[in-house]
Amino acid sequence: MHLKKITLLNFKNFESANFNFDSKINCFVGANGIGKTNILDAVFCLSFTKSYFNSSASQIIKHDADFFVIEGVFDKQEAEEHIVCSLKRGQKKVIKRNGKIYEKVQHHIGLLPVVMISPADIDLIASGSEVRRKFIDSVISQSDRVYLNDLILYNKVISQRNHLLKYFAANHTFDTVNLEVYDDQLIDLGAKIHTKRKTFLEAFIPIFKERYAMISNNKEEVNLVYKSHLENTDIKQLLKDSLAKDRLFQYTTVGVHKDDLLFSIADFPVKKFGSQGQQKSYLIALKLAQFDFIKSQTNDTPILLLDDIFDKLDENRVLQLIRLVNEDNFGQLFISDTHAERTENIIKQINQTYKIFNLS
After folding, report:
1. Helices 276-298 and 315-324, interaxial angle, to 10°?
2. Which helix (H) or strand (E) holds 26?
3. Contacts of 63 (CB under 8 A, 6+ apart)
4. Among 299, 322, 351, where does a domain finish?
5. 56: helix, strand or coil
6. Nearest-5° Cα angle at 201, 197 to 202
7. 183 close to 239: Cβ distance less than 8 angstroms
8. Which of the chain's ends, N or C, has fewer CB atoms near its CB within 10 Å?
9. Cα–Cα distance between 109 and 199 in angstroms, integer?
């Protein structure tokens, strides 16, 4: 699979732009703030129907415009897929596939697999558990639509249960029967989500370790550890034991929405003891493992987006990474960098077709 062309209207800093891509390597070069990352983010939007960097869809509309449109034409299994992602301020986002509007946006997820590697990924290490859960969920969801649907339902039930707990507190009342309606749904959905996350990580962790060894030349031992409230107790018992605490805090304090991943190098937390280079290598290994896992599950080759790849990596490591993704099992590659000459010198060292887009 590869992206043949893209059209942007009022997307971030682009009023109107068109790009035709090489099927292998595409490089966007130019000064900071010129829009290189925005093009990669537009490609991501066509896959995930949302920005990689902005949580609110309205934030990616050009500041003086009322709407944005991203149109992409993909070559997938010798057929064209025409995807349009659009939004008008104050209205619902619209996703079209070959002219037909999706009834539910989540039905599009997984059709066009994409993996982004960006300096913003440091949030996986530096931020709270929610970011790491989203990473797990995004990887699984690209190849498991049932999981995505269960996750959406679970989060909806959590929201409803939390609203009910706040209602009880505000009205100085409590109704066990009403609360158990939500508990029964959480028990079923939470068990399914936990099982699939556990199964996923059993397959994913060895792939991640292998990728890190390749990047670091076997210099350090790394590990991922899955932490969940459901490790030793079933969710029914957890909800029962935490009821008093839930009433006090007015939200659901236990469940798979509190799961986490622990990142370590040589048995020490990456966040505290990993150097910038080690942290960057760790994150790249995570994303390449994501690439490998999605490809193995979907039998489709994801598009790989490398945003500002020279950030915290020297040129030798970048060349090593580019050579790595030059293997036959990789497909289309998008790169952003501030230095055109540096990028082209590295790309010329591998035997692939490429295009360089100078943005000014």
Report:
1. 10
2. strand 25-29
3. none
4. 299
5. coil
6. 120
7. yes
8. C
9. 20
Ranges of H-type helices in the chain: 36-48, 123-126, 129-141, 145-171, 176-216, 235-241, 243-249, 270-273, 276-298, 315-324, 340-347
- CATH of residue 105: 3.40.50.300
Residue tagged 């370790």 (tokens): 209
Picking from 184, 159, 158, 166, the residue whose alpha carbon sits closest to that of residue 248 is 166
Same domain, 309 and 278: no
- In this structure, are 126 and 108 located in the same domain? no
**Are 220 and 314 found together in one domain?**
no
Residues 86 and 130 in one domain: no
d(CA 21, CA 25): 8
Tokens of 164: 């009910």
Domain that holds residue 359: 1-113+304-360
CB neighbour class for 27 (10 Å; exposed up to 12, middle 13-18, buried from 19):
buried
pLDDT tens, per residue, the chain with 360 residues: 999 999 999 999 899 999 999 999 999 998 888 899 999 999 999 999 999 998 888 889 998 999 999 999 999 988 999 999 999 999 999 999 999 999 999 999 999 999 999 999 999 999 999 999 999 999 999 999 999 999 999 999 999 999 999 999 999 999 989 999 999 999 999 999 999 999 999 999 999 999 999 888 777 899 999 999 999 888 999 999 999 999 999 999 999 999 999 999 988 999 999 988 889 889 999 999 999 999 999 888 999 999 987 765 666 767 777 776 676 677 899 999 888 888 888 888 877 889 999 998
Same domain, 43 and 188: no
